[in-house]
Amino acid sequence: MKRLLIACLPALLAGCSYYNQFVERMNTDTLEYQCDEKPLTVKLNNPRQQVSFVWDDKLLNLQQGLSASGARYTDGVYVFWSKGDSATVYKRDRIVLNNCQLQNPQR
């Protein structure tokens, strides 16, 4: 019996890993923005309070921070700030993506 359990353990662990990835994908929304400079694709994970996107060929993962209005995500260098259907991306307090408008917003 122990040998059977040991033989099945890798399959059970792989199944758990697949399930976790599946749940993670279900909790992640893809948001498409059109900014003045270029398009921006943002992955929003509400349970983790995190956004991720590619900028300057780097994958950025920003955690939700304090905001008086809208939603603000930061890693200490970059900030993604959104309010309603618009967003702005900052790098060290300098705007790098401006006037980003959400495409096909869900109402």
From TrEMBL:
UniProt keyword Lipoprotein, yes or no: yes
Domain of life: Bacteria
Matching PROSITE patterns: PROKAR_LIPOPROTEIN
Annotated InterPro entries: MliC, MliC_sf
Keyword Repeat: no
Residue span, C-type lysozyme inhibitor domain: 33-94
UniProt signal peptide: 1-19
A family per Pfam: MliC
Keyword terms: Lipoprotein, Membrane, Palmitate, Signal
Classification via NCBIfam families: PRK11372.1 (NF008475)
Official protein name in the record: C-type lysozyme inhibitor
